[in-house]
Design brief:
Two copies of one chain form a homodimer. By secondary structure, the first copy, chain A, is of the alpha/beta class. Chain A contains 15 helices and eleven strands. In chain A, strand 6 and strand 7 form a beta hairpin. The longest helix of chain A has 25 residues. The first copy, chain A, starts with 7 loop residues before the first helix and ends in a 6-residue tail after the last helix. Chains A and B meet through helix 9, helix 11 and helix 14 of A and helix 9, helix 11 and helix 14 of B.
């Protein structure tokens, strides 16, 4: 591995001093970029793009050409794990992801196995190798996975859901069966993330996109518990460096304290919780990542810049902050506003790191 | 007005002793009931049903015939106020509410006036008179309105939204214009709720369905501030009784403390915050309403009953709790599970009120 030329992200995640607050953006390689849409068309569809290491590398690097981002994130999808389990992932235009063979019965749960990352998910580690070579140490590469609860939600519902009626029916009627599924998912996620780390990922993030739809005791039992189990079993050091782990539960502001006690290095915040208040709450247990409302990017240039500055001021002086949106960037955002955001964060944050 | 035969709801909202925890259910008169669907068909469509006092009364009473509920809630829609402002409310099958003339410009904001509840919204007060006569003191009647922020969201977006791109664009780019709109909405909501109270509503609830999509400082400035303004200007006593005010911000668990300081009598909780933890936080400032996950009703009978008992235990001994779901009941729920819920709450809660 070549030396890292920009280690702001790694340093901020470990709460070491930095010159400026690092920034990356969830879904930074995405549909808001015309060059992304062109590559995706070339690939045929979204899933083909994920499974093609060369093209996945191409889109991973695209946002770095436009913006002074402090990290690259593997271009992939959280649902590649259930796909590797044989559920038959497909994408419908406008409706999002769906599975041909959803998990509905005890037999369905018992049937699925733990995928071997080196065979069933080889395209993921291959993409990481390709991206690391292309990056050549420019910025660190973030690997990722969905959380067991989030993956299980899609697997049981069979597609996106507003009410989560099937998985919550299972949770309240057959909790033991759901635990059996979640345990398999936790083991699969652990293997997949450890393979990503071995292949070159220098940071990993677990996306718990749907943890926030749970009631508090159910969140602890059915989502957080399994993320803690993963954190315990991840490779914490690789190639002589600590590999920081970021946990992100969308809608998890109420459970920040429990998240900070999982053993992770950083907690990702959505925009509903003030990052200053969050910092007071977590103290020096973890770094924080976030948390601009993605819809602030619908504002004019002045509005975007002001909103970014407010977050930086709210976090305050010193390290331990990775700037990000509070959720993925939406497809109808003007890339020009992303440039304003990234540049504002770097320029304005310098004064908060001068002691 | 005839004497109230069941005042459990009013007593619990004022934290006075009760024999059992009262329960009502958001959207209790709704599509999950076959008799509701029949009346709605008779009316022609949803909006006609809202505007017909006799039929609105019919559906308001339907759930009380099936379940031992402790309150009736006016059958109406939060968007009747913007409709009375001339925005042209209509409903599309499967897509929800929409406006023919959304608010997009300064001129749009300046043009709208404060509706007179006695003329433009006469069908609302007429429905309340009709319902009160039919109830004849059986249970109290709850009146309601949307919050200024929630109403403005629909008015500016023109329909439901996932990203709230237009109103958040306005919030971050033209905050003064948005404040002008929200002030008009707050005055309109105040007039409308005071008219509902004068007509016979014994409790009022403000539904801040979309407050939870805001970042913390924006929630305080653009949603909570206007709810506080309404609370200050509502009729607090009518017909010799206090008229309790319930504020419900979906996704507002992080802001419970601020909600409890608005001067309202009770705060409605969605299911993401433990009600026991919420009770500790608010102390004796307000009563609490909630907070079963509506999707717990997808469980089997045993699962529903267990989930309800857990909430009652979590709240603990004594008054100040109104049982409800954490959001409206969904259309595909089996009414049999609602019966199990209501009966469990009454039977199981008695032991928590015996000191």
């Amino acid at each position: 591995m070549p030396d890292l030329q920009n280690d702001r992200l790694l340093r901020a995640l470990l709460r070491e001093t930095v010159d400026k607050t690092p920034i990356w953006i969830m879904r930074q390689a995405g549909r808001y970029l015309p060059e992304y849409r062109a590559t995706r068309q070339k690939a045929g569809n979204f899933l083909e793009l994920c499974k093609n290491p060369e093209l996945a590398c191409e889109v991973t690097l695209q946002p770095l050409e436009r913006f002074e981002l402090d990290a690259a994130i593997l271009f992939s999808d959280i649902l590649t794990i259930p796909d590797a389990m044989g559920l038959g992932l497909y994408f419908t235009e406008g409706e999002g992801p769906a599975f041909m063979h959803p998990i509905r019965t005890r037999a369905d749960v018992e049937k699925i196995g733990i995928p071997d990352p080196e065979s069933e998910l080889a395209y993921v580690t291959q993409a990481i190798h390709t991206i690391c070579t292309a990056l050549n140490g420019r910025v660190p590469l973030i690997g990722f996975s969905g959380s067991p609860w989030t993956l299980a939600s899609y697997m049981v519902e069979g597609r996106g859901s507003r009410t989560f009626s099937r998985i919550k029916g299972m949770l309240y009627s057959e909790p033991t069966l759901l635990h059996q599924l979640l345990d398999k998912m936790a083991r699969s996620v652990t293997d997949c993330l450890n393979a990503q780390i071995a292949a070159g990922a220098q940071v990993v993030q677990i996306f718990d996109t749907w943890g926030g739809v749970l009631a508090e005791p159910q969140y602890m039992e059915f989502s957080l518990q399994y993320m803690r189990q993963i954190v315990e079993n991840l490779t914490h050091e690789c190639r002589g460096r600590r590999v920081p782990i970021i946990l992100f539960t969308k809608g998890g502001g109420l459970w920040l304290d429990a998240l900070a006690n999982t053993g992770c290095d950083a907690v990702g915040l959505d925009w509903t919780l003030s990052i200053g208040r969050a910092r007071t709450q977590v103290g020096d247990r973890v770094a924080l990542q976030g948390n601009l409302d993605p819809s602030a990017l619908y504002a004019n240039a002045e509005g975007v810049s002001k909103a970014a500055k407010n977050i930086i001021e709210d976090f305050g002086q010193g390290s331990g902050h990775v700037f990000n949106l509070g959720h993925g960037i939406t497809p109808d955002i003007d890339p020009e506003n992303v440039k304003i955001l990234v540049d504002t964060v770097h320029q304005y944050s310098a004064r908060f790191h001068n002691d």
